[in-house]
Design brief:
The chain has no helices and 10 strands. The protein is mostly beta strands. The protein has one domain: Sandwich (Immunoglobulin-like). It comes from Devosia litorisediminis.
Length: 127
C-alpha cells in the first residue's frame, strides 16, 4: 500500500479539493475506476475523505488509515469495510478529522474484483 506523508497543508480553504487518478479494474478497461483523497480545512481542523468513482456499478472493500502528530501528541485512526458505488456517482468510503497543523500520513486502498488499488493524492495504482 502506498503511504502519503504531509508536513504542511497542501490545500487551504473551505472547499474540498479532490485529486483523482485513473486506475484499472478487473473485467473493465484500465481507466474506469478512480479513488480520491480530498482535504478540507475549517476552524482549525482538517477533514480528510476517501472516495470511489466508477462508470459502472461496483462493490468492494476499503481501508482508510491516518497517522497524525501535533504538539507532542500522536494518533492512529483506521476505518475499513465494504462499499458499493452506483455507476457515475462518487461515494465517500472514509472520513477523519485531525488538527489542521498536524503532520500526517494517509494509507487508503480499495479492493475490487480481487485487485488492490493504492490511492494517494498523487495518483492511484494497482499493487
Amino acid at each position: 500500500m502506498t503511504q502519503l506523508t504531509r508536513t504542511l497543508p497542501l490545500f487551504f480553504g473551505v472547499g474540498i479539493v479532490a485529486i483523482a487518478a485513473s486506475v484499472g479494474m478487473a473485467s473493465s478497461d484500465t481507466n474506469s475506476l478512480r479513488c480520491d483523497i480530498a482535504e478540507q480545512n475549517q476552524n482549525g481542523m482538517r477533514t480528510i475523505t476517501g472516495s470511489v468513482f466508477s462508470p459502472q456499478d461496483v462493490s468492494g472493500e476499503y481501508r482508510f488509515a491516518i497517522r497524525s502528530a501535533s504538539n507532542g501528541n500522536s494518533s492512529n485512526i483506521s476505518q475499513g469495510g465494504a462499499f458499493s458505488a452506483l455507476a457515475n456517482e462518487a461515494v465517500s468510503v472514509g472520513q477523519m478529522m485531525i488538527n489542521a497543523d498536524a503532520r500526517y500520513s494517509v494509507d487508503f486502498s480499495i479492493i475490487v474484483g480481487g485487485q488492490t488499488v493504492a490511492c494517494t493524492q498523487n495518483g492511484a495504482r494497482f499493487t
